[in-house]
Write a structure and sequence with these properties.
Helix content: 25-40%
Largest sheet: 6 strands, mixed
Number of helices: 15
Distance between the termini: 58 Å
Structural class: alpha/beta
Number of strands: 20
Shape: elongated
Strand content: 25-35%
Length: 426
């Protein structure tokens, strides 16, 4: 069997190592080529990305979120920093089972403090509080077990996997100490090259973008490009920090082969400059306001090659000067060599899936009928819904052309009897 090198953060025995091995094993069970995983430990997440970019490994497995501890923000930041150099090619949900480990012969009553990675400490918060122990954050779960074993810290216990006990010669004092049995960590598999799954495979697409300005409704407008095309979102994450681009550089006009989009628009740059001036003249991005300009990450339940996804990404490029696809990958799976039998089974499963049910005609009110309000109205009218709009500006002619009932004030629109608001014929 071929051998594949996979970088992970932590010592031998870390959950990341177990997840890396498990994701390839699960892929083989589903019809992918069987591979021997040579797991390469790294001291930090930065080192994991460096090992992948530096061609020391073929893949990297990094945690991105946990059902109890939340998102691992460091890896979101690294995905942004190295966008284009690394690509998401898979995901795997790993069941985390924590154990309390201590040097041989240690009793639970002797423990005064517990050591582990901050995420593991957070996942066992209730257990630690009940015992009244001091928390000692460490760089890794298995690394804490290694440190306790090497230094024979009899009053300190490690929270890590039970497999680390045999690896480092420790006793298991208690198992299953996490606060919630629904303790899963979602890991991403990263590669240097994007690998688009077959269209018949249920997929996710991860997109990162930075809006052009911080103005009322900008996030709503950005997410509407997906909602209006009925593209399902399953996650959204925001991170503060400096802008990646502002009118050029990595966000220059054009679309990459993997569906990435970016646009540098002079009008938006001028608009942003005006907004900056109104906030007091930020300079060189060093002000507090500049430091809290947000980057958004969204996961779409769709394939990046889908026409409506491509249109949504182009539309997003009109709102966000920086927008990139970080990866298109199988939902709950990884993309490695797949056998023909597994590909055929996936295609049959996809074809036999029932089509989603659409809701009936709606009565939709739009408050404010400028360019974006008219854009929304056109979409809803085309879908067979009844549209009503209210605005202090007279847009009655535009409303009539679209097929929208127009009101000069909101109260009149809201007081319209329901019987007179029957949906229009599709």
């Amino acid at each position: 069997m071929p051998t594949v090198k996979v970088a992970f953060q932590g010592e031998r025995g870390a959950y990341s190592e177990a997840s890396a091995r498990e994701m390839f094993a699960v892929a083989a069970e589903r019809g992918a080529a069987q591979m021997v995983v040579d797991a390469i430990p790294c001291a930090s997440f930065d080192d994991v990305f460096a090992a992948l970019i530096g061609r020391k490994v073929e893949y990297a497995a990094v945690p991105i979120e946990n059902t109890l501890g939340g998102s691992i923000h460091a890896n979101y930041d690294l995905l942004l920093r190295h966008h284009g150099a690394v690509h998401i090619v898979g995901e795997h949900s790993f069941r985390v089972r924590h154990a309390l480990l201590a040097p041989k012969g240690t009793n639970k009553a002797d423990i005064q403090r517990v050591m582990s990675h901050p995420q593991a400490l957070a996942q066992c918060d209730g257990f630690i509080r009940r015992n009244g122990w001091e928390r000692v954050p460490a760089y890794d779960t298995a690394g804490s077990a290694k440190m306790i074993a090497e230094e024979a810290l009899r009053s300190t216990a490690a929270i890590c996997s039970a497999s680390a006990a045999e690896l480092f010669g420790l006793d298991i004092l208690e198992s299953g100490i996490e606060d919630d049995a629904n303790n899963f960590t979602r890991f991403l598999l990263l590669s240097r090259s994007p690998a688009l799954p077959p269209k018949e495979v249920p997929c996710k697409t991860t997109v990162v973008f930075q809006p052009s300005t911080n103005e009322a409704g900008i996030l709503f407008k950005a997410l509407s490009v997906f909602a209006l095309r009925e593209i399902d979102l399953c996650k959204i994450e925001s991170r503060p920090g400096r802008r990646v681009v502002d009118g050029g550089g990595a966000g220059a006009n054009g679309a990459a082969a993997d569906g990435s989009v970016g646009q540098a628009d002079g009008a938006r740059a001028a608009k942003r400059a005006k907004a900056v001036a109104c906030r007091g003249g930020e300079s060189s991005g060093s002000s507090a306001a500049a430091s809290f300009e947000y980057t958004f990450y969204v996961d779409l339940l769709a394939h990046t090659s889908d026409g409506k996804v491509q249109n949504a990404l182009r539309h997003l490029g009109e709102i966000a000067p920086f927008a990139r696809v970080l990866g298109c990958f199988p939902a709950e799976g990884i993309l490695v060599a797949v056998t023909d039998e597994a590909r055929d089974a996936a295609r049959e499963q996809r074809v036999s899936a029932a089509a989603p049910k659409r809701s009936g005609a709606l009565r939709v009110g739009v408050i404010g009928f400028g360019n974006f309000g008219q854009f929304l109205a056109r979409w809803f009218v085309a879908a067979g819904h009844a549209l009503f709009a209210a605005s202090r500006t007279d847009y009655s002619d535009a409303a009539a052309r679209i097929g929208v009932t127009f009101f000069s004030d909101v109260s009149t629109m809201l007081s319209k009897p329901r019987a007179s608001c029957a949906p229009r014929a599709a």
